[in-house]
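Hi V.,

You were right to ask for the full record rather than a summary. Here it is.
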Amino acid sequence: MGDAALEIEPVRAHGGHLPVGEDGPRVEESLRIFAEEVGLSLSTVKTYRWVASRWPAERRVASVAWEVHKILLSADDPFALIADPPVNERTGRRCWDGDAARKAVGWKTSGTPSTVAEKVETVADLVPDEAVACQVITGMLKRREVAFVAMRDRDARQMVNEIQFEQSGVGQDDEDDDGLDEEYERALACEDSQDDDSDVLRADPATVVRAWHRQMEFNDLMGVCHGFVAGASRLVPKLRGQEFTSKQHTSVEQVLEKIRATCDWIESAVATGKGDLDDALAQLLRGQ
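Predicted structure:
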């Protein structure tokens, strides 16, 4: 989400009439619209964007929590620091957690798990046995807020979805699949009405998974669309008075043809729920 916000509104570089990192009204409004569409607060989106802008993709460590990346930005050289994790006194392994990151940058620590990341690591260390872990997870997923937040994790959502489909036989019978679609729509209707949130919990687990899966896909789509519009809005005004060669005109026309076809494809997919790419469009997008 931070990368998407950064694509929509890049953080200002040095120079210009505004100080570094200071956003004008247009940027605020653009990020606010994006935040509302993906269901986040403006301050959250701005925080994600700020952290993403200071951690280039090639410098990030996938196994290290986002919170740690954020905290280490207070260090003199966060890129070198994150590559040298400290030894965890409890496990004896080299790894980063929130408490270790705070110590590294000189912040006060509690000495006991306090953040979500620290508590998660503590729980993981305490339940290495799979049988115990299964019972703990099963109990936790019976909590409404836990189940819904867990399904926002892409990997967890995909795993639960695959296992649920395997156990229920979904995908092997069209009638079963149609029934699941109907149940999914009913769950969304319950969620939108907010008359009885417990109805959503009583839905089939695959229903919840698919609802969150579609929401995250919608968020990704909004990020791509907003990024294109924002980029064009910044660039096109700069073209005033410029002259292009016939070859450049041809190149632009070819790209615009692909963009129009892609927009039609998106509109059709949103209206019908079918995102299949036909041969003609596939050839056009490949430049054939």
